[in-house]
Amino acid sequence: MSFPHLRLRQPTSELIDLPWEKPLEAWPVASLPFRELDVGPSRHVVRFLAIGSGTLALKELPLEVGRSEFDVLRRLETRELPAVRAVGIAEAEERDSAILVTEYLAHSLQYRRLLTRLPAGPYRDRVMDGMASLLVDLHRAGVYWGDCSLANTLFQRDGDKIQAYLVDAETSEIHPSLSDGQRDLDLEILVENVAYGLADLAMSQLRDTDLDLDEAIVAAKGVRTRYLALWDELMSTHELMASDRQAIRARIRRLNDLGFWVEEIELEPSQAGQRVKMKVAVTNRTYHSRRLQRLTGLVALEGQARLLLNDMHEYTTWLETAEGRPMSEAAGAQRWLERVLEPTIVELTPLIGPDRDPLQAYCDVLEEKWILSERARHDVGLRTAIDSYLQLGAPAPEAGSPDAPPDVHPKPPRRTRARPLAGGATARRTRATRSIPRTDPLP
Fold first, then answer.
1. ∠ CA 304-355-386 to the nearest 5 degrees?
2. Is the pLDDT at 272 greater than 50, yes or no?
3. Could you give the CA distance from residue 416 to residue 7 in angstroms, rounded to a whole number?
4. Is residue 29 within 8 Å of residue 15, measured between CB atoms?
5. Closest CA to 211 of 110, 131, 115
6. CB atoms within 10 A of CB 22
7. Distance between CA atoms of 143 and 78, rounded to whole angstroms?
8. Measured in whole angstroms, how far is the alpha carbon of residue 285 from the centre of its chain?
């Protein structure tokens, strides 16, 4: 049995020493750190290895299919699209097969675990939003998925949203751009597969669910509506009155609220000269995460960053009121980071378990605070929210999940060197952080 053509993007000794010359099914279970994870139905042999502090997914498939998927995943990574990262491939021409190696997405969940551990209604809607957004992201980049489904997707909780990631690119193709027919076909596949996945979940014995077959079909059709609305917002040319600069600014704000950074706007005057056609060029969904990183050095997901920025701005406004003086956004960001976020993370980290994202746990506390405040009809404060969240057991669908890497302790949020933003931000007054211990003067 000859050694295969091996390509590794992180050539550690742990990876180099694996028995690449053997079929994946023949790898010795006793001597390798395999992990048992639920992968759902699969046409191929799929196994998971604990390597270092993370987990790798290995899949054996036909040689040409494996080569194609490896290439597609590399190109998706280059374009910063939401997909798993390809780590390597072992090409065994003598048996016409390849073993594809990808990173297992940290803090991620499959749709069955996600929807069986969370309230069906609102979280199902968030999953549908995530699927629609993922397909829009891929189509904007000229990627035809070809097998869009819940089973071929991993999900991360991202603040009060759910982010979807492509994990299976066997049928994917990358073009300079997609035709309307290609997009329509991909969307049809997505709607059909989502309906099947939800219906299968509803009929399973995993949970008592209020979702029946008809509701699964309705929910799946909702993906189409979400996709078309987002595609229109991003890709359509809008006609506006030339004098209506507020409408232009409003469209940019809408795109920013969706998480998109506007790189360029183009205003083309109509023949009459009284109206203009507005085209926009946007990047991927990194608007809030970029701003948060520039202000604080924190690296967060887009939805997390949006919630954290709101919390930071509210705290800055409270400080301005408490101290009776204006404060720059950069100064407020540093005070919030040092006096609010970091002390709370220190308190939460030992209690949330080894497989949890501390920033997401803080976002969960903010959601608990919102729920309690709505119920009380006044702001209950962050201290009350933390206590309530911990009394509930710090709930999260990934808590206690067997998908978590073993013996890995939660790491504090990653920070880079912060570069302050110019300008200030206006936010409504809040008492959200009044009960967090700090040295700032209190009113």
1. 55
2. yes
3. 31
4. no
5. 115
6. 15
7. 13
8. 10
Interatomic CA distance for residues 38 and 47, integer angstroms: 10
48-73 pLDDT, tens per residue?
Answer: 999 877 899 999 999 999 999 999 99
User: Which 3 state secondary structure label does DSSP give 91?
Assistant: strand
User: What element of type H or E holds 264?
Assistant: strand 260-269
Q: Which of 156, 198, 161 is nearest to 398 (CA)?
A: 156
Q: Give the pair of three-digit tokens for residue 426.
A: 């206006």
155-183 pLDDT, tens per residue? 999 999 999 999 999 999 999 999 999 99
Tokens 């501390």, residue? Answer: 358
Q: What burial letters (b/e) apply to 214-246, b meaning 16+ CB within 10 Å?
A: ebbbebbebbbebbeebbebbeeeeebeeeeee
* Residue 115 burial (CB count, 10 A): 25
| pLDDT score, position 413 | 63
Q: Is pLDDT of 307 > 90?
A: yes
CA distance 43 to 60: 10
Q: What is the pLDDT of residues 203-254, one digit of tens each?
A: 774 454 555 667 778 888 899 999 999 999 898 888 888 778 888 888 888 8
Give the pLDDT confidence score for residue 211 in this predicted structure. 58
CA angle 111, 370, 401 (to 5 degrees): 30
Helix (H) or strand (E) holding 103: strand 97-103
Enter the DSSP assignment of 210.
S
Q: 357 phi and psi, to 5 degrees?
A: -90, 115
- Is 85 exposed, middle or buried, given 0-12, 13-18 or 19+ CB atoms closer than 10 A? middle
Structural domains present in the chain: 5-103 (3.30.200.20), 108-235 (1.10.510.10), 238-285 (no CATH), 300-443 (no CATH)
Strands 173-174 and 143-144: antiparallel
CA pair distance 66, 34, nearest whole angstrom:
21
Cα gap 52→391, rounded to integer Å = 33
pTM: 0.82
Tokens 């502090």 correspond to: 53
Give the Cα separation of 136 and 440 in Å (integer). Answer: 45
Question: Kindly report the CA angle at 89 between 87 and 92, in degrees rounded to 5?
Answer: 165
Look-up of token digits 């962050």: 382
Model confidence pLDDT, tens digit, residues 331-377? 999 999 999 999 999 999 888 877 789 999 999 999 999 999 999 99
Share of the chain above pLDDT 90, in %: 54
